[in-house]
Amino acid sequence: MIHIIVYTHELSSLLSHHCTLVDIVVPLLSEVDAVEKLLADAGFGENANPMAAIIIGKMGSVGTKTVLRLGERAVATATRNTKGDSTSAAKDQLNALEDILDDLRGDEVTASSLCEVF
Predict the structure, then answer these.
(1) pTM over 0.90
(2) How far apart, in Å, do the first and last CA atoms of the chain sit?
(3) d(CA 93, CA 96)
(4) Residue 31 half-sphere exposure, CB side, CA atoms within 13 Å?
(5) pLDDT tens digits for 95-109?
(6) How far is the C-alpha of 39 from the C-alpha of 41, rounded, in Å?
(7) Which among 53, 74, 78, 80 is least buried, having the fewest CB atoms inside 10 angstroms?
(8) Cα–Cα dist 20/9, whole Å
């Protein structure tokens, strides 16, 4: 479900339905099916389901923009690492995605141990 929040600084704008700002609030995705649909709609083909399972399995819940960025990075990394010669591009993309998410988890742990929140 998407919620659209409209607000303005002027009462007259609100009353006349001419609002100055609109925020669209998109909830985090936490179901494999939702992430799979997003990836499939974005053109990830046969890898949409396994990528979705990996992302939700490792992250729990995630924003739509993050899902798309992770998918794009996995494809780019797999392509760069194999130089386009691989006969198993789909598997290479899944391996790249797992590596990216493992690195992300490690980076979060390192950052939290180095930074103190006041």
Answers:
(1) no
(2) 35
(3) 5
(4) 5
(5) 999 999 998 877 666
(6) 5
(7) 80
(8) 8
